[in-house]
Amino acid sequence: MPINYSKYPPNWKTEIRPRILERAKHRCEFCELKNHQTVYSARIYGGKSEWFKTHDEAVVAAFNSGWNCPIEYPIVKPVKVVLTIAHLDHDETNHEVLDERLAALCQICHLRYDSKEKYRRIMSK
């Protein structure tokens, strides 16, 4: 996820981000995956990707989902979890940021959390 740090408080990377990661014990606050953990992404029914803790779990899920993938090799890829700090109220320009407004989230949880707001912003243009 590209980020434009010019919208954020100057102490975002040096104070705020480390504080929120520490509060979350370096785990996603939604799904509890660890920062820098390797997980496995599998394409499942409908083309949607899901993450699994082991390669075998991902392969089984891909086969059992009904997704049309080659029997010999379902689409399973390793992914490194990188925690990002999400604005729970979607206001990244508020420099009086409170910790209660922030959450440490993995990439997939952050994207899913922001999806409706991003869609709303696109449609309001």
In a nutshell, what does this entry contain?
It is built from three helices and five strands, in the order H-E-E-H-E-E-E-H. With about 120 residues, it is an alpha+beta fold. A three-stranded antiparallel β-sheet has the order 2-1-3, with helices on one face. The protein has a two-stranded antiparallel ribbon with strand order 4-5.
Account of the 3D structure:
This protein is α+β, with helices and mostly antiparallel strands. The protein has three helices and five strands, in the order H-E-E-H-E-E-E-H. The strands form two sheets. Strands 2-1-3 form a three-stranded antiparallel β-sheet, covered by helices on one side. It has a two-stranded antiparallel sheet with strand order 4-5. Strand 1 (38-43) and strand 2 form a beta hairpin.
Secondary structure elements and pairings:
Layout: H1 12-23, E1 38-43, E2 49-52, H2 55-64, E3 76-80, E4 84-87, E5 102-105, H3 107-123
N-to-C SSE series? HEEHEEEH
Number of helices: 3
Estimated radius of gyration: 17 Å
Terminal Cα separation, in Å? 21 Å
Strand order in space, largest sheet: 2-1-3
What general form does the structure show?
globular
Mean pLDDT across the residues is 87
Q: Say how many strands there are.
A: 5
Beta-strand percent range = 15-25%
Low-confidence stretches: none
Instruction: Outline the biggest β-sheet.
Output: 3 strands, antiparallel
